[in-house]
């Protein structure tokens, strides 16, 4: 089985780094970005994305539109999202695994 590649995008450094650590520990290959521009510059392809709804130069929704076939977990402290900040490490891993029906 091939390891899934996840793109994590969040402008809050501590949250981004924590999500990367949790997902790597769960067995995923993870790339991270702090903005929409940085995310779009990274090499894919991605098996899934974990996207903050509010970014300094766009939104998670904007990024998702560029990759319409990639499943997404949205995170936000401001709006309705798959995961509302703050969330637990377990909730993050479960939300990502649920993208493939393995939660």
Describe the protein:
The chain is α/β, with parallel strands linked by helices and 103 residues long. The protein has a single domain, classed as Response regulator (Rossmann fold). It has four helices and five strands; from the N terminus they run βαβαβαββα. The protein has helices at residues 13-25, 36-41, 60-66, 89-98; strands spanning 5-9, 29-33, 48-52, 72-76, 83-84. Strands 2-1-3-4-5 form a five-stranded parallel beta sheet, sandwiched between helices.
DSSP helix count?
4
Tell me about the biggest sheet? Answer: 5 strands, parallel
Order of helices and strands: EHEHEHEEH
Tell me the total number of β-strands: 5
Give helix % range.
Answer: 25-40%
Strand order of the largest sheet: 2-1-3-4-5
Classify the fold: give the CATH topology. Answer: Rossmann fold
Supply the helix-strand structural class: alpha/beta
> What integer is the average pLDDT?
94
Q: Give me the CATH superfamily.
A: Response regulator
Q: Domains counted in the coordinates: how many? A: 1
The top-level CATH class is Alpha Beta
The value of Rg in angstroms is 12 Å
Overall morphology: globular
**Uncertain spans:** none
% residues in beta strands: 15-25%
The CATH architecture category equals 3-Layer(aba) Sandwich
Give the end-to-end Cα distance, rounded to a whole number of Å.
17 Å
